[in-house]
Structure prediction request, 205 residues.
Amino acid sequence: MIGAWLGCDRGSTLPLYIWLTTILLFAGLVFFVFAQAASARNGAQSAADAAALAAAQQARDELLLDLGDAIDAGNADWLDWLDLSMGGLPADEVDAAAAELAAQNDSTLDGSVQPTEVGGAPGFQVAVITDYTVGDSIIPGTEDMRAKARAVAVVQPRCDFPPNTNPTDPVSLDCDGVPVDIDPGNFDPDALPDASVMFSVYLAK
Prediction:
């Protein structure tokens, strides 16, 4: 009698075990899908960050060249390039620079690079879409789903000079502790330091 009751108990718990196992397997698969999606989003954000920084760094390099040209030409407004009050950043090659870094991260620019401003600092906003998909999963459509992300990088002046500085006189700049001397009357463009000394580039959060 007791043996028959135990056999009946085992038979009644078997469907419960099967049901619990099925639930756990399904939960595991759902978790895996979310992990795939999160990985794709992280990859897209990394690509967007790299592309935005590349755009801003390209603009910074062009900015230094334009600054050198302005000083060499004897333009009285060359000091405006140092505090970025000349209006806007050079943007001739920023799309190409951003696209190259996006491609290195298996992504493509989603539209063109857009000029923007964050806290008074000029910069660029970049949007990317991954070249890869989330992948096959139990959720329909993920095999064609691509991740998207945006990022903004800005350019910040690093050099200070006295407010009443005469642009035709020799100028001593303090670029975050690094001295930079510029003599407009005896100027050598090759004597300018690396662009990173005079202008910083960083991601805006």
